[in-house]
Amino acid sequence: MVLLDAFLPQAHGTSPRIPDEHKLVRGDVRDPAVLDELLPEVDAVCHQAAMVGHGVDPSDAPDYASVNDFGTAVLLAAMHAHQVRKLVLASSMVVYGEGRYQCAEHGIVQAPPRAPKDVAEGRFDPRCPHCGADLASGLVPEDAPLDPRSTYAATKLAQEHLAGAWARQTGGGVWSLRYHNVYGPRMPRDTPYAGVASIFRSALERGEAPQVMEDGAQRRDFVHVSDVARVNFLALTTEPPAGANTAVNVCSGEPHTVGDLATRLASAMDGPPPKIIGGARSGDVRHIVADPARATELLGFRARVSFADGVAEFATAPLRSSVSPDGRQQMVDH
Predict the structure, then answer these.
(1) Where would you tag: which of 197, 249, 254, 275 has the fewest CB atoms within 10 A of its CB?
(2) pTM recorded for the entire structure
């Protein structure tokens, strides 16, 4: 197995320890020369390379588009040149925007972006676009409408579209694995690009209460990184439909609130209880929880790590070092 990583400073400070039987190459997926050297002996690509997270503000857009979309385009072109016909793509739940909602009167509806006035007044749940009534959230299937609401989300959907076009043109096959909220050992910390679990834990390690936006009742599906690794193995060893991009939710099937995550993590770390601060970041969605049925049907995947066990482990697991804006490494393993 050959591993390629650019070691972006937002995520990495040092190179990870790699078993001797694997080869680690430090390089950029946007560099055709690197890919031309690596792909001749490859029969499948597992594409995880991406700039992730909510980001800081729209000034991040060029970096997101360059790493995520241009990088994917360069990779697909190289795969075509070297006749590699199988791709496992790390996609994301963010392509959906809001989750699936039902109105008592109008049935399944696509929730519009939340009005800033509603958020400011503490009304965080989206309203029916037809009658303005409260909506009930449910599980999102893979055929739900796609409605990215942040720069990162737009680039992840573009990755899927690029991969789908490549598959149709070449007869190749793609598994697009739509990860939900991944957490676990070696998450990066102390960066605006980290996941919410890492942000909460970093605060608790500083002796601070984790700050929970909105009212803490926003629902997510937290899936452990070991389950994510396993579904990638299953995808690599399962033939995708030829000439198509097949999307699959990667989730635990066990929805929890963000407030619940903060509370359990604070308890596991003997830290101060979470502080609800209200408000919402631009582009944030209220509820996004997934239907796990297709992953089970097509890949035989079911998550094995429960929320309770995963959070308890994460409370003491080593985190990944990152590089601060001034270029100094932040040591976080312990």
Answers:
(1) 275
(2) 0.92
